[in-house]
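Justification of computing resources. Each target in the renewal requires a structure prediction run like the one illustrated here; the chain below, 120 residues long, is used simply to show the kind of job we budget for.
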Amino acid sequence: MAGGVVSVLELRVLAGCEQDVISFYREHEVFEQARRSGGFRSGRLLEPREQGAPFLVLAEWVDAEAYQGWLDNPVREELGRGLSPFLESAPPRGGIYQQVGLWPLTPGRSDPDHPREAGA
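Resulting structure tokens:
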């Protein structure tokens, strides 16, 4: 992801509203709306495995200016209003990170932390 940035947003979801948030992202095509704003590469909505932990929204952008364009987009503000009944508080501005490394596993090589069993 040369030259790009990743935004990380925590969503504090009200207890019992987890499926509502997931449905909202699907039905309102949140990531498609972000793509239309320009500079959006990809996004993920991550549901926590631990009860009460925040959902995470990870999005890859061509640069910080593209992410700022999304933050300033009235569509995002409208989506935020629609999502707010399911959240403990209004969605904050996400943190911006620059990728400095990626270590995918090479096919045929074992993960040193999880070695393959003999014959596998």
